[in-house]
Amino acid sequence: MNKIVNSEKFSLGDFFFLKKMITPVFMTVIYWVTLALIAIGGLGMFFASFAGFRYSFFGGMFGLIGSIITLIIGVISTRIVFELICVLFNINRNLEKLALNKDDNTNDSSNEQTIISHDKF
After folding, report:
1. Do the Cβ atoms of 38 and 75 come closer than 8 Å?
2. CB-hemisphere CA count at 13 Å for 39?
3. Are 67 and 45 in contact, with CB atoms under 8 Å apart?
4. By the 8 A CB rule, do 41 and 70 touch?
5. Which residues cross the membrane (predicted)?
6. Which of 23, 58, 63, 80 could form a disulfide with 52 if both were Cys (CB 3.0 to 4.6 A apart)?
């Protein structure tokens, strides 16, 4: 697993002023907890649908099929949502890298220009 946050350079100031992102670290944990809750809910609906057979066959079948569909769509939609969130964090990280590279290139070119201008005199 890739290390998203460099904990060696993380300070309390970064935490309070939102300079570094810590949410990507927790995304995997939140994803698995969400999947567990969806599985518990889907299985609960599945077993509760058997009580519907007591009143109506079609009511029980509707509950059974509905619970399976809920479970499948819940897992897929959770995956899509968390992937989109991760994409946003990856975009942010890449933009930070581009900004740092641009600053480094700007500083390097300004140093070269000052060196060249000093050589002329």
Report:
1. yes
2. 6
3. yes
4. yes
5. 29-51, 57-89
6. 63
Identify the residue whose tokens are 């460099």.
Answer: 6
What's the mean pLDDT in 35-54? 94
Element (H, E) at 70: helix 57-120
* Contact criterion met (CB below 8 Å) for 25 and 5: yes
Long-range contacts of 76-83 (CB under 8 A, 24+ apart): 78/31, 78/34, 78/35, 78/38, 82/27, 82/30, 82/31, 82/34
Query: Which residue's structure tokens are 């907890």?
Result: 33
48 confidence band (pLDDT: 50, 70, 90): very high
SS3 54: coil
Rounded-to-integer distance, Cα 88 and Cα 55, Å: 48
Q: What is the pTM of this model?
A: 0.66
